[in-house]
Design a protein that fits this description.
By secondary structure, the protein is an alpha/beta fold. It has helices at residues 10-37, 45-53, 102-105, 145-148, 159-163, 190-198, 220-225, 244-250, 290-298, 314-321, 325-341, 366-371, 417-420, 429-449, 470-475, 495-500, 529-533, 539-549, 562-572; strands at residues 149-151, 171-173, 176-178, 210-214, 231-236, 255-257, 272-278, 299-308, 345-350, 353-357, 460-463, 481-487, 504-508, 521-527, 550-561, 577-583, 592-599. It is a single-pass type II membrane protein; Single-pass membrane protein.
Length: 612
């Protein structure tokens, strides 16, 4: 054991801090090696670690997970008040999605997909237990192998292998699911389908970076677009196609549970370079074109909308689709009229694929829209969408042009148009650059703490309070992606600027459960989140939700004021997480600290594993 530091001996305190950092780095190294080997398959692991670390990992056995504040701050004594220990939930909750619970959904009307929207449990029905992983759960394969293979034990549902057998979605082989890259509209593979789209849409040069895939299935389009430097935000409801979004996330592809119903989608206006529907079963022409108006809201000027499948080319396919040709003809007529009303230009129609492009500005549309008596949305903030009803109106073009948006990857650090135009109060171009530089510094410090951060060990990453997306930008790598969450109660609505950097994200209120399955993320980052939500809702609920969406042996980095972190650490003490409090990279006198945690491996009905 290291000697206890003398409060007056700064050199001793510095040594202890170095001891902690070195120990934690070694701790993460062991953890990564353990996971790569597969849980319970570490016969030669000790020899491997000794070879790679020079035998310098005996420090792990002496890791002390108490708080260290460099002698400047007195920590609370947890022994004074007994910590609350959270028990495992029943095994039936292994895939529990609180706000998309199937039983609760069936109590709501089916009109306009209301029953598939978010319906969160009231306070008295919230679970206050830890969601277990299913028996046999293993760490997902690293990318890009995960694109094609998912361990059966992680999502043990075979229904799609039967329902979509001829469409080449997914196949069950031994103890894994294999994803051949097919889909309902691309049985020859996603790559060939993307090649066809790329003959019309400028995918290669970075003009198209962000894509919204509605009714995404198992997200094969997003999976195969990744190699072309396009990142897709895919969504699908939790419905009869069991686990489609769960499969997407297990594959390492960004996806959320969602639906086009009566509520606006949780994305900012002018966010996506492209939107896509491949036989997504959304009635685009219904409700006076309301769903296409919502796509128009989130589509960037000059962006593209792709529709493949019914009713495109209905004259040839109506028999194969087993639908009346009159019905399909009317459906396409409604879509064409709605697109015309939106001033979209049809660029392509061949086979079962049609592509429209949104105009770069509204000037050329005014006369046409005046003639058609278009109703424009009156809301002063088209980004105010959380639980807001979808409207039958057209979102006006912004006063400032989006034409200054650079191609990716240049746009990652270019000043976003929303910032340059002064659309985000309190954020100037200078403040934006300062924020980017700050996050480069923070991420550099994180990589010293956890050397596996950009190794490919963490594929699915979430930033719970993303701000301007600086954390995700500093981490940018083909090995990972970041879901940038902007809380609905954040001081500034910055998600539009995040998208203008070529990143993806979503609005969310952390007083409620996130729209995803358990065990969706490998690493979760939370900067200032608990200070933001302090006295807004129960911090315990937020931490239990983090545990739900974090994979076994996943990592957490929480950056916040020390007083808040002490409260958080006390709650975590009953959650089967191993933790370490660390000083800010600028030293112990900075009141902001870093809490690093790793979720222990445990499964339903099984024992946990701990590094302690």
């Amino acid at each position: 054991m290291a000697p206890k530091p003398n409060p007056g001996d700064n050199r001793t305190r510095s040594s202890i801090q170095i001891f902690i950092v070195a120990g934690l780095c070694c701790f993460f190294y062991i953890l990564g090696a353990w996971q790569r080997s597969g849980f319970g398959k570490a016969d030669n692991l000790a020899m491997e670690i000794t070879k790679n670390t020079g035998g310098d990992c005996n420090i792990i056995s002496n890791l002390n997970f108490e708080t260290h504040h460099g002698g400047e701050i007195t920590s609370t004594d947890d022994s004074v008040s007994e910590k609350k220990v959270f028990k495992p939930c029943a095994p039936k909750y292994t895939d529990y999605t609180p706000c998309q619970d199937q039983r609760r959904a069936m109590t709501f009307p089916r009109d306009n997909m209301i029953y598939r929207e978010r319906h969160c449990p009231p306070e008295e029905e919230k679970l206050h237990c830890l969601i277990p992983a299913p028996k046999g759960y293993v760490t997902p394969f690293p990318w890009p192998k995960s694109r094609d293979y998912v361990p059966y034990a992680n999502a043990p549902y075979k229904s799609l292998t039967v329902e979509k057998a001829i469409q080449n979605w997914v196949q069950y082989e031994g103890n894994v699911f294999r994803f051949p890259g097919g889909g309902t509209q691309f049985p020859q593979g996603a790559d060939k389908y993307i090649d066809q789209l790329a003959s019309v849409i400028p995918i290669k040069n970075g003009t198209v970076r962000t894509l919204l895939d509605t009714g995404c299935g198992v997200a094969s389009l997003g999976a195969y677009l990744w190699s072309r430097n396009v990142i897709a935000m895919s969504f699908a409801p939790r419905d009869s196609h069991e686990a489609q979004v769960q499969f997407a996330l297990e594959r390492g592809v960004p996806a959320v549970i969602g639906v086009l119903g009566t509520i606006k989608v949780p994305y900012p206006s002018r966010a996506f370079d492209m939107a896509h529907c491949s036989r997504c079963l959304i009635p685009w022409g219904a409700n006076d074109g309301k769903y296409l108006m919502e796509v128009d809201r989130v589509l960037r000027p000059g962006g593209y909308w792709v529709l493949s499948g019914p009713p495109i080319n209905w004259k040839v396919n109506y028999k194969a689709w087993q639908r009346p040709k009159e019905e399909l003809q009317e459906e396409q007529r409604q879509i064409e009229e709605a697109a015309k009303m939106l001033c979209w230009e049809k660029k392509y129609e061949k086979g079962e694929i049609a592509i429209w492009q949104k105009r770069m500005d509204g000037d050329s549309c005014h006369s046409k829209q005046d003639e058609s008596q278009v109703t424009f949305c009156k809301s002063s903030d088209p980004d105010d969408v959380w639980y807001q009803k979808m409207e039958t109106c057209v979102t006006p073009y912004p006063d400032t042009s989006s034409s200054a948006l650079k191609n990716f990857p240049e746009r990652l650090y270019a000043v976003p148009p929303r910032v340059a135009s002064g659309s985000i109060p309190g954020v100037s171009a200078e403040k934006y650059q300062e924020d980017s530089n700050k996050w480069k510094k923070h991420v550099k410090a994180y990589k010293r703490i956890n050397r596996l951060l950009d190794s490919g060990r963490y594929r699915n990453i979430m930033d719970m309070n993303a701000g301007l997306g600086g954390f995700a930008a500093a981490l940018q790598s083909p090995k990972l992606w970041v879901m940038n969450v902007v809380p609905t109660i954040a001081e500034r609505s910055t998600l539009g600027a995040v998208y203008e950097r070529g990143l993806i994200g979503i609005y969310h209120d952390w007083c409620e459960a996130f729209s995803t399955y358990p065990r969706s993320y490998d690493l979760i980052h939370a900067n200032g989140l608990f200070s933001l939500y302090n006295n807004k809702c129960n911090l315990e609920d937020i931490l239990l939700e983090m545990d739900r969406i974090l994979r076994p042996e996943g990592a957490v980095i929480i950056r916040d004021e020390v007083d808040v972190l002490i409260k958080v650490k006390k709650i975590i003490g009953g959650m089967r997480w191993d933790t370490k409090m660390m000083d800010h990279e600028d030293g112990p006198l900075v009141p902001e600290k870093i809490l690093v945690a790793v979720k222990q491996y445990w499964v339903a009905g099984g024992n946990s594993t701990s590094t302690q």
